[in-house]
Specification:
- Helices cover 14% and strands 37% of the residues.
- Strands 12-11-14-19-16-17 form a six-stranded mixed beta sheet. Strands 1-5-10-9-7 form a five-stranded mixed beta sheet, with no helix packed on it.
- It is globular and about 55 Å long.
- It binds copper (II) ion.
Length: 341
């Protein structure tokens, strides 16, 4: 009797540690054809090893690297309007792109500017934002920003320009408010598919006086990938590439202050979460207050929820951070801070 390979029985075989040549083929074939492999691998399941991947994706070919995305803030092209208001202009294109999300597994993504997540758009409360959006993809798309703006700038079907057809463009324009951590995503239908394909990014509106200075600011956009298109995720990640921050721990020093802009854009699963090991953080939901609402080591977010985390480490060493939906962690949503003395 053959057993259909789902993401759950795939995980239970420990097959993920074998990804690379054989594992990639195993997953990408999917369905009944792959049924022979799990039984054998069940026998060799290793209970002591951490899950992970063998080898590494080709970041150069992908055109982006999750470690760079951590600290890549796009402040736009800045000028001053006659009124004295700061104008920030951004050029964003929707493009189809094959992204290697695990060694040997390419996902036919839709992206903003060729990367997942799209550019982290950053500005200050009260700035005038101008987004020159062009659709270089083969499907209609939009840019729907969270924040306060007129209806015609909402980036949804049947409102203002509606969906932007392939080869067409539109300029979204509004004043940045309120301050906080927001996000943007495509709002063409079917919505779940347009988001799951990779069309989302972080949108930071700084308060006018700024936030207190810290030693490090990192952007982490949580999402997943449904590589066999069965409306269930097969991989989970921060900044798109599963296990990346296990392979490339984020280096900080003891006592340095860290601020994380954490955004959940995960499709198909109701809840995502973030857990920090051996530490606690101040949490600012949506970043709309300068006073933290919680001092904790774990937060959960549904899709489009986001928040700011602030912490520092007391002791040197390697510390995990991961989804405390532990299944997500074992399918890629895990990483490490390396705290140097
Ligand atoms: Cu779209």
């Amino acid at each position: 009797m053959t057993q259909k390979i789902s993401r759950r029985n795939f995980l239970s075989t420990g097959a993920l540690t074998l990804l690379g040549a054989g594992g990639a083929a195993l997953l990408s074939r999917g369905g009944q054809k792959a049924a022979a492999a799990p039984a054998a691998q069940m026998e060799s399941m290793n209970h002591s090893n951490m899950p992970g991947v063998v080898g590494e994706v080709d970041h150069q070919k992908n055109g982006f690297n999750p470690s760079d995305i951590l600290i890549d803030f796009d402040y736009g092209e800045v000028s001053t309007l006659p009124s004295g208001q700061t104008l920030r202009e951004y050029n964003i294109a929707a493009v189809n792109k094959n992204v290697e999300i695990a060694p040997g597994i390419e996902f036919p993504a839709w992206t903003y500017n060729g990367r997942i997540p799209g550019p982290t758009i950053r500005c200050t409360e009260g700035d005038h934002i101008r987004i020159n959006f062009s659709n270089g993809s083969t499907h209609p798309h939009t840019m729907h920003f969270h924040g306060v703006h007129p209806a015609e700038m909402d980036g949804v079907p049947f409102n203002g320009p509606g969906v932007i057809p392939p080869s067409q463009s539109f300029t979204y324009e509004f004043d940045a408010e309120p301050f906080g951590l927001h996000q943007y995503h495509c709002h063409a239908f079917p919505l779940a598919r347009h988001i799951a394909k990779g069309l989302y990014g972080a949108f930071i509106i700084d308060p006018k006086g700024g936030r207190p200075p810290v030693d490090h600011e990192f952007v982490m956009v949580m999402s997943g990938f449904d590589v066999d298109f069965d409306d269930a995720n097969d991989f989970y990640a921060v900044n798109a590439i599963p296990f990346h921050f296990d392979q490339h721990p984020i280096q900080i020093r003891v006592g340095e202050t860290v601020r994380i802009y954490l955004v959940n854009m995960l499709e198909f699963d109701l809840i995502n979460s973030f857990h920090l090991h051996a530490n606690f953080f101040n949490y600012y939901p949506t970043g709309t207050s300068l006073t933290p609402s919680e001092y904790t080591d774990t937060v959960m977010q549904t899709q489009a929820q986001r928040g700011i985390l602030e912490f520092s480490y007391k002791f040197p060493g390697r510390y995990m951070f991961h989804a405390h939906n532990t299944e997500f962690a074992e399918l890629g949503w895990t990483g490490h801070f390396e705290v140097l003395p």
